[in-house]
Amino acid sequence: MRNRRFFAIIVGVLALGLSACSDFSKIQKNGTDDEKYKAAQKYFTKKDWYRAGVLFEEIIPKLKGSTEQELSQFNYAYTQYNQGLYEPAAQLFKRFYETFARSESAPDAMYMYALSLYKSTPGFNLDQSNTISAMSALQDFVNTNPDSEHVKDCTGLILDLRRRLERKAYERAKQYYKVSGFSIANYKSSVVSINNFQREFPDSEYNEELAYLKVDAEYNLAANSIAEKQKERFQDAVAFYKAFQEKYPNSKYLKQAEKMHENSTKELDRIAKEEKAREEFKKQQQPNPNAPAKVTSAN
């Protein structure tokens, strides 16, 4: 008995689904513009985003200049957003507030444009071009609508995106450091990347670790450089260590950094002694102006 009831329910659901599909197909193929418009709004109310979106897309080009155009474009953008199609939704919301700048819905469309961009951004380990665009859109909304109820949310989203950029820059700096042992160029890139990070994110929680890694990278760069480059690079390693020690006197990395500082100082002492020895040798090779001139006899 129960099986029969269950079977009857399933059949009923399938019948309703087929009927809905049939109605949708009829309207899409043979319906008038007015019928499609009303059906699109009906599907939208029922949160049938796919069918509503299909019909809105068909009728919007035919609604130019009509009172229905504004609402249709706004709702069409939402059908894409609610299906998780964030990039197309972003472009539709942007088109709406640019086309209907005086509409009461324009601020909402501007917010939804920024929110759609935010939701389309990838994780920190991927390309962050969309992240920068989303941050810009969110900030534009805040600047344009300072009294909006969405300002607080936008500020939080901007901070979240900034943390993604920070993590991306941190991972990039560490990646250069990890592979720096393979070439002098990578040691250089590691130092440059860390410097860029410190300038862009001066208050980052990652700066202590990166300040230590910069000492390490510069020390190894100096140690693996040709003789002509070593003095300047060991001096930079010492300067990086002093800056690190001053800012993070209780750092867990301090002992390791001290060893590199000691070795850098020893190398600079060695280089100074070698320079002094070369200077003395040069002086010995120069003629003494006070020495008596040699007299040669003619044969």
Helix content: over 70%
Strand percent estimate: under 5%
* Average predicted confidence as pLDDT: 87
- Uncertain segments: 6-19
Give the helices and strands as they follow along the chain: HHHHHHHHHHHH
Distance between the termini: 143 Å
InterPro entries: BamD, BamD-like, TPR-like_helical_dom_sf
Pfam families: YfiO
Organism: Fibrivirga algicola
Keywords: Cell outer membrane, Membrane, Signal
What is the topology?
Layout: H1 2-30, H2 33-45, H3 49-59, H4 68-82, H5 86-99, H6 106-120, H7 129-144, H8 151-179, H9 184-200, H10 207-223, H11 227-247, H12 254-285
What can you see in these coordinates?
This is Outer membrane protein assembly factor BamD. The chain has 299 residues and is mostly helical. 77% of the residues lie in helices and 0% in strands. The protein is built from 12 helices and no strands. The chain has helices at 2-30, 33-45, 49-59, 68-82, 86-99, 106-120, 129-144, 151-179, 184-200, 207-223, 227-247, 254-285. Helix 2 (33-45) runs antiparallel to helix 3 and helix 11 (227-247) runs antiparallel to helix 12 (254-285). The longest helix is centred in the last third of the chain and has 32 residues, at 254-285. It starts with a helix and ends in a 14-residue tail after the last helix. Residues 6-19 have low confidence and may be disordered.
